[in-house]
User: What shape does this take?
Amino acid sequence: MVQGVVRFFTKIDYLLRETFLGLRRGGWMNWAAVSTVAVLLFLFGASLQISWQLENVLGQLGSQLEISVYLDENTVGESMQSRLLLVDGVASARLIPKEDAWQNLMKDLGKTDLTQATQQLGGNPLVDEFKVRAVSSDRVPDIAKRISGLKGINEVWYTNEVVERIGQLRRAVSNSSVAIVAIFTVIAIAVITTTIRLIVLARRREIEVMQLVGATATWIYFPFVLQGVVFGVTGAATAYVMLMLSINLLGDAIVNQPELIKSLTLGLTTDLRMQLLLPAVLVVFGSVIGVLGSLLAVRRFSFNS
Assistant: This one.
């Protein structure tokens, strides 16, 4: 038992020493690899932040987008409210009785004598109306379609153009982010691969000696994989610091801006996804890139061993 523990820590000590030695041999190429990964992860993290923030803003906007539901003349509003709330995706349904709608219309038209206006038209020409809010903007078209199929509904109206533009904006941000991140991912992997290959070549004689004494290819080249992980984790930490600094600078820059601009960054620094999920994602993504770059670098050497 004790021998097994000692052997385990001896292996760990060896791997750490070999990893550190390889990093020392990398020289300035280490900084090139870390900088490339940091730039990639900064762009990736920024795209995630924009996407999450846009999702928050659009979610708030989507919940404020109202679907106007006009009932049939003989349909009682109170009886319809419970049915509307059962529709999947409906957040709320606010009844506007036709009497209230008629009073509001007369006020907007500058009419003060409601009785005279009602008599001239032969009664209140309006119907009961509901203002329905969806849980998100994406659900509005589907909800409107479902509501229009209910019995007792005369007409359903919503701002279709706004919903479509919101969807287009979200897709454009996602597509652009994917394209940019994909390009920089390839560049980062290429730089890490080149860096690890140079380190392997610099230690070629040591590797040959290890091969002569019977060391396996996995044992020889695993420290180089760990070096790739170090590049990825260091780049992730650098990118996260850069992102936090950018957020703070942005917060200082919009202090005196209009409320509309401030609302776009509302909750940016307090979002738990920014504080917990983002650094975890950056570390995992950076580690994967480092491992892939290292494996590509040592594959040819290990196969030839």
Observations:
- Strands lie at 66-71, 90-96, 129-134, 153-157.
